[in-house]
Design a protein that fits this description.
The chain is an alpha/beta fold and 286 residues long. The chain has a domain of 200 residues: 3-Layer(aba) Sandwich (Rossmann fold), CATH 3.40.50. The protein is 41% helix and 18% strand. It is built from 10 helices and 12 strands. The strands form 4 sheets. It has a 6-stranded parallel beta sheet, with helices on both faces. Strands 6-9 form a two-stranded parallel ribbon. A two-stranded parallel sheet has the order 7-12. Strand 4, helix 5 and strand 5 form a beta-alpha-beta unit.
């Protein structure tokens, strides 16, 4: 059997993958969802037992330390999951001749440009989370033969905790809200990203490398919030403010809109607009 192992299946993207796989009518692959309890990517010995048991053709790594501010204080834990975990998977994918699909982030960039970021632009993360994700990428590029690294941004969905869900909750609790309007990126629906991962596998694409994937268009967090309330007919008053109004432990890129030309060409994608995908997600929730 052509097995696909999904690590971090309990997280937002892992749950989105489950939903997409459940709707897939026919496949030549068996998708096996592993939680951290099933297999810890930071433990290379136990991890190899999983590879031996399932003899996978593909690995999808959704496991990550994603708490951006906490990573500044808990660097060792972030490094363990985002760097050592990625290294362990890459090493075993090389040994067992399988392909690794790994999720990375727009936070590998400094974000001080006003141009869309492509895969060749220099990386210079401004927080430890971004640094740990970049170091994980570097381990994969060094050790794995067949890999797809997908950098994404501002992930949300009906699953897990995310900005959209926070706004929906605050929209019920408050009459007015302040939201940052000087950080630019693109909200990305996790279900859309999950479909891309499945397309790569199901078509057995071999154009390996680093790719950018987000939904189409650009937004600020304020624009994102306004669209959420617009689509849910919530009349809450939303005021745009600068990042200086919200002091956070970790710095954020001010501009991290991803250029998707490479993935459109090599994978053959039609990328949905972020507003359309947001509306689709909210309709599912409602």
């Amino acid at each position: 059997m052509n097995n696909v192992l999904i690590f971090g299946s309990g997280g937002q993207l892992g749950q989105a993958l489950k939903s997409v796989v459940s709707l897939t009518e026919s496949s030549n692959f068996e998708y096996i969802f592993l939680s951290k309890q099933d297999s810890d990517i930071t433990n290379s010995i136990l991890l190899e037992d999983v590879f031996k048991k399932h003899t996978p053709k593909y690995i999808i790594n959704c496991a990550a330390y994603t708490q951006v501010d906490l990573a500044e204080d808990f660097k060792e834990e972030a490094h363990k999951i985002n760097v050592i975990g990625a290294k362990n998977l890459a090493s075993l994918c090389h040994k067992y001749k399988c392909c690794l699909l790994h999720i990375s982030t727009d936070f590998v960039f400094q974000g001080n440009s006003s141009n869309m970021l492509n895969e060749e632009d220099p990386c210079n993360p401004i927080n430890y989370y971004g640094l740990s994700k970049l170091q994980g990428e570097q381990e994969i590029e060094k050790l794995a033969d067949a890999y797809f690294i997908l950098r994404t941004s501002w992930l949300y969905s009906e699953f897990g905790n995310n900005f959209m869900k926070t706004m929906l909750r605050l929209g019920k609790e408050k009459d007015r809200l302040q939201v940052v309007n000087d950080q630019f990126g693109t909200p990305t629906y996790a279900v859309d990203l999950a479909k891309v991962l499945l397309q790569i596998i199901e078509t057995k694409n071999q154009k390996f490398g680093v790719y950018h994937y987000s939904n189409e268009g650009a937004s600020t967090w304020y624009d994102f919030a306004k669209a959420i309330f617009e689509y849910t007919n919530n009349s809450i008053e939303v005021t745009p403010v600068g990042s200086s109004e919200f002091v956070t432990k970790a710095n954020r890129p001010s501009f991290s809109v991803l250029d998707k030309a490479k993935i459109k060409t090599n994978i053959g994608l039609n990328v949905p607009c972020w507003r359309d995908s947001l509306n689709e997600c909210l309709q599912k929730i409602n």
